[in-house]
Amino acid sequence: MPESCIVKRLAWLPSWALWLLIVCVSATSAYFGSRAFGWSIDWGSIADWAAAGGAFFAALVALRIANQDRELRAIEQEEGREEASKIQARLVQVEATNNSYSPTVHVKVVNFGPLPVLDVDLVAASWIEHPEARWGTNWKWSGPIDRLGPIEPLTHGTSHRILHPRSAQDDETATYWKTATFDVCFAHRDRDVPILNAAATDDRRRPTRYEQLDMDLVIITVHFTTADGLRWQVIVQGGVGDDPVRVQPRSREDRWLARIGLSQ
């Protein structure tokens, strides 16, 4: 019988049963081997063998119980760490508001927890009414598009490296970040221009009207890392962020791209 078949047939057995089977087979082989070669070995009585086998089996059971206990403690510690981190993540408030004068969304992230949060990133934005629209965080429009100068290509903006706790006693002149902000801009799929509802008239009696954003149809995704190193995601729809969900930490390449405004 091929070795792979033997492995498959024994795969259903628990590990302690496999070890016991190996010991029994080894002992039986040694016994009959000594008889075949005429060796005189004092194998002891059946009671001695039973006692030795029972002690070996008890040792295997104790080892298995110890391993299970250690695994359970590790799982409980990890669950406790994640729960404590989620409490801190819930103290990070994420909200979004629209700008009535341009197709942009202002996103604000405030840390109300006792510890700093790290690497605050706006990683995704979508406008359900215009699923083909591209987004970025480097545009700001303050007037009709026909009066604007050159606009730079759309990129995915700034990563805030650290966001300190905010409290009522904060010094407003402090130089470190207490609030992370992003201005998300939506543009046409193939042109770096905003989505218009109506263009300006030639006599300028009617200015350009941008397509207005219904915040219930805008979805913003923000990632940040709590002080214990766990990465969290908050999805904002309707202007209010939902409960944070744990995600995988960023790779070194993602962190580098975020610093230069090229995160995907």
UniProtKB/TrEMBL annotation:
For this protein, the parts annotated as crossing the membrane are 12-34, 46-66
Key words, A-Z: Membrane, Transmembrane, Transmembrane helix
- Name-wise, this protein is Transmembrane protein
Organism the protein comes from: Mycolicibacterium wolinskyi
The record lists the lineage as: Bacteria, Bacillati, Actinomycetota, Actinomycetes, Mycobacteriales
